Amino acid sequence: MEIYLPANCNEIGQRDSNEDTIYPHIATVKSRLFMVCDGVGGQAKGELASNMVCEGIASYLDNNPLKGVGDEAYWSASLRFVENQFLEHFKEFPESKGMASTLSLFHISNKERRVLIAWIGDSRVYHIRDGKIQYRTKDHSIVEALLEMDEITPQEAKDHPKRHIITRAINGTNPSKIDIKIIAEVRKDDFFLLCSDGILENLDEEKIQRWFTKEVSVEDLKQNIMTCVKGNTKDNYSMYIIKIKKI
User: Fold this and answer.
1) Is residue 13 exposed (0-12), middle (13-18) or buried (19+ Cβ within 10 Å)?
2) Could you tell me how far CA 143 lies from the centroid of its own chain?
3) Full-model pTM
4) N or C: which end of the chain has fewer CB within 10 A?
5) What kind and span of H or E run contains 155?
6) Distance (Å) of CA 69 to CA 9, 43, 140, 243, 245
């Protein structure tokens, strides 16, 4: 499976510090693991948390060969590895307790010709094919739960006072659960978008469906999105855009 050169951003927005982390910092067409994480905790601890998640999972994959991309036990073990790193950090720096991070992850399996999406929290992954959203992750958040129960409308969700409250995160003190989705049917010109919730402040699904057509390049998409969010987004905003070149 070949990809075009991915595009990314990792911006501070209108915050005092950037608590988002992306992985890899610089991607190539050979990159197969991508992550966008949104940290919480304040006083640089959110930045530390998101960085520890990205580096920890990448390290686990480097040191533990993946036999099958759909192995749920493997991805759960990678999460336990990161959570143990958090606990070791808390022993030396107890003031860091309370820091946490979301996770959105995308992994390409060349051997199996399929991809894996994994997530915790409200950083999302979209699978888009010529303007149609094939799949999107469901946020682990209060607002998502209210939407599923039909307690609020999608329009009400945009400005809901609890829209930033997540129900699942990686924090080390309370074991979390990683959700995974295998995309078995991947086609040429399919897009995958990983993003923190800061991107979604100004990028809605109508824009995604209008912009992510098969003819557009990842760089043109990045420019469209950056024009949309720059100066308008209060939160940190980060993303990765991956386009499939050949199966």
Assistant:
1) buried
2) 18
3) 0.95
4) C
5) helix 154-158
6) 26, 36, 23, 19, 20
